[in-house]
Design goal:
Layout (H helix, E strand, L loop, with lengths): L1 H6 L5 H29 L4 H32 L14 H20 L4 H27 L5
Length: 147
């Protein structure tokens, strides 16, 4: 057991907040990028699709993702150890949820169940709150000693 403790990659809580920020930025950015690629394939009524995505993304952020990122930030700041494991920016349950969401996204895209014109709205709608949520992690990382 001691060998695991010595090889476990440890980082400061501030670093953990920045790692979480980068992961959430990457996930949101990737979905937005995929939405952009799909919008090239289905450019019809693009303004309306982006407007709907913006409204949906804002709603998801305010109703769901804001609370999730707040909960993760609080959990990181309140970790008992000063140098937690590099991978503890998510709880085990969150890793499972993330795997399910990634798998679902891939299956939806590959299966063709949802037409491209609607899938791009879904990608934008989910990418926006992820990207916005990452800002909380950057903020708490930047002002960690003052909070």
């Amino acid at each position: 057991m001691d060998i695991l403790q010595t090889i476990k990659p440890k980082v400061s809580k501030r670093s953990l907040l920045y790692i979480a920020a980068v992961v959430w930025t990457f996930a949101g950015g990737m979905l937005i990028y995929k939405g952009i690629l799909l919008s090239i394939q289905a450019p019809e009524a693009l303004g309306i699709k982006i407007f709907i995505s913006g409204l949906g993304g804002a709603a998801f952020y305010w109703l769901l993702f804001s609370n999730i990122s707040k909960k993760h930030t609080k959990r990181i700041v309140e970790l008992k150890m000063e140098k937690p494991c590099l991978f503890s920016f998510f709880s085990f349950r969150s890793y499972i949820l993330m795997a399910i969401m990634i798998t679902s996204g891939i299956l939806l895209r590959k299966s063709g169940i949802i037409p491209t014109q609607y899938l791009l709205v879904l990608y934008f709608t989910m990418g926006i709150p992820l990207f916005l949520s990452s800002i909380r992690f950057y903020y708490h990382g930047l002002f960690y000693n003052r909070l």
